[in-house]
């Protein structure tokens, strides 16, 4: 039951990552795209709630209850930051996106695809080394996101438009924090793989 729920939650996170890439890469029909992301975030919340309900009703769990709780929370955090980024873009009324936003969104997408495969791997725990490799890749992608954020700041602070600076800085930071949340999931999965191998 828990593994199925985690796989469902990871799949929703992957869908949300594709939606945020679509939003920043093709900045049209913004309200509709943001709404799609919001719907995915709500779906993720429902699955997360279901995981916690199962945890409260199950005496013997396939993983340590703390691991289950941490993994559910960490996956949900990625969704929260993807949604928060999208809603900020809409409410701030930014006129368009830029290559830094696209690159950060694509790093989120690459990270969550790796995480989805790692989540699938914990069901059987047949290849903990493969789970660990995927987690290492997510850590590498998060480091790249840090670099992209610094380059984005360099470009951003050349502008004289203080309002635009504030809006874009916030969006960059939310995208980058989403990659931090991916790294948090990778760390939980890595710990699970080590403990259960």
Q: Any chance you could write out the topology, listing elements then pairs?
A:
Layout: H1 2-25, H2 30-57, H3 65-92, H4 99-121, H5 128-156, H6 162-196
List keywords for this structure.
single chain, Methane Monooxygenase Hydroxylase, Chain G, domain 1, 197 residues, globular, mainly alpha
Structure description:
With 197 residues, this protein is mainly α. It is 85% helix and 0% strand. The protein has a single domain (2-196), classed as Phosphate transport system protein phou homolog 2, domain 2 (Methane Monooxygenase Hydroxylase, Chain G, domain 1, Up-down Bundle), CATH 1.20.58.220. The radius of gyration is 17 Å and the shape is globular.
Task: Describe the structure concisely.
The chain is mainly alpha-helical and 197 residues long.
**Strand-pairing-aware structural class:** mainly alpha
Question: So, CATH architecture?
Answer: Up-down Bundle
**CATH fold node name:** Methane Monooxygenase Hydroxylase, Chain G, domain 1
Uncertain runs are none
């Amino acid at each position: 039951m828990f593994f199925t729920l985690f796989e469902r939650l990871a799949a929703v996170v992957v869908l949300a990552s594709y939606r945020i890439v679509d939003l920043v890469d093709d900045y049209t029909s913004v309200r509709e795209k943001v709404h799609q992301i919001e719907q995915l975030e709500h779906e993720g919340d429902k699955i997360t709630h279901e995981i916690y309900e199962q945890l409260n009703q199950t005496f013997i769990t396939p993983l340590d209850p703390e691991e289950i709780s941490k993994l559910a929370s960490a996956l949900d955090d990625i969704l929260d930051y993807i949604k928060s980024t999208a809603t900020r873009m809409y409410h701030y009324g930014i006129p368009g996106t830029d290559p830094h936003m696209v690159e950060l969104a694509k790093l989120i997408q690459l990270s969550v695809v790796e995480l989805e495969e790692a989540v699938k791997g914990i069901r059987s725990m047949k290849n903990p080394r493969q789970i660990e490799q995927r987690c290492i890749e997510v850590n590498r992608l998060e480091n790249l996101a840090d670099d992209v954020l610094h380059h984005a700041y360099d470009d951003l602070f050349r502008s004289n438009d203080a309002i635009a600076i504030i809006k874009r800085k916030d969006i960059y930071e939310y995208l980058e924090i989403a990659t931090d949340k991916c790294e948090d999931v990778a760390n939980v999965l890595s710990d699970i793989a080590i403990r259960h191998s």
